[in-house]
Amino acid sequence: MPLLTVNQVSHHYYSKTDYTKALENISFTLDQGEFISILGPSGCGKTTLLSIVAGLISPTRGETILDGDSDRKAGNKAHMGYMLQQDYLFPWKTIKENVLLGPKINKKHDASMDQRAKKMLEEVGLQDIGDSYPDELSGGMRQRAALARTLITEPKLLLLDEPFSALDFQTKLRLEDFVSQLLKQYNKAALLVTHDISEAIVMSDRILLLKPRPGEIQEIFKMPGELRNLPPFQARQHPSFQEIFDEVWKEMSALETS
């Protein structure tokens, strides 16, 4: 059984005088340990789709099923972690306190969770800064702390909404490698929204390309095994990378000019 099933999802935004079709008949599945990226022109409903999967909004039509639960239950925050462009760390709390926010909110904070927070900070390379505050960290370190905060609750699915877009290019490349390795280590499934074709290619098992509004799936690109077995930075150097990039770019360009 797939970890996530998105079944014929459509969504409309209504105003007093009109409505806008954001998504139309989106269907796909996501398996445990699989990484899918969502690409498409601006305004095609990528973030709306992510919000529906997260259970933040209900679709106008269709359903999402997470690990056997219907879309109402799929919004259970214990089942998934959400990372955004900004880290949204609380500046008045230490990094360790920020990492422990989820367990405290879910009333699962105990001594064992303190040990888990320590381990997670070690996993993301921040073992020595648990008592530091967010404004003492670089942008890349803050995003790694946000990742630790997301993973400590052991979510079944990670939802990533352009989590690297606010970083400088060098830091972005390093974090892509780091996050890819960590997700494989924990066998986590992930759904990424991005505007970056290169990022989608080197991070993903599959890429869903959406049409302009209303967002429909135009094409699904499956990444070859030789790329998936490489860290993202090395995958960018692989001979097949440019060929895949050109194919996706051609399809995206055609959508934006049609």
From TrEMBL:
InterPro entries: AAA+_ATPase, ABC_transporter-like_ATP-bd, ABC_transporter-like_CS, ABC_transporter_ATP-bind, P-loop_NTPase. GO terms for molecular function: ATP binding; ATP hydrolysis activity. Residues 4-237 form the ABC transporter domain. Keywords: ATP-binding, Nucleotide-binding, Transport. The keyword Signal does not apply. Signal peptide: none annotated. This is NitT/TauT family transport system ATP-binding protein. Pfam families: ABC_tran.
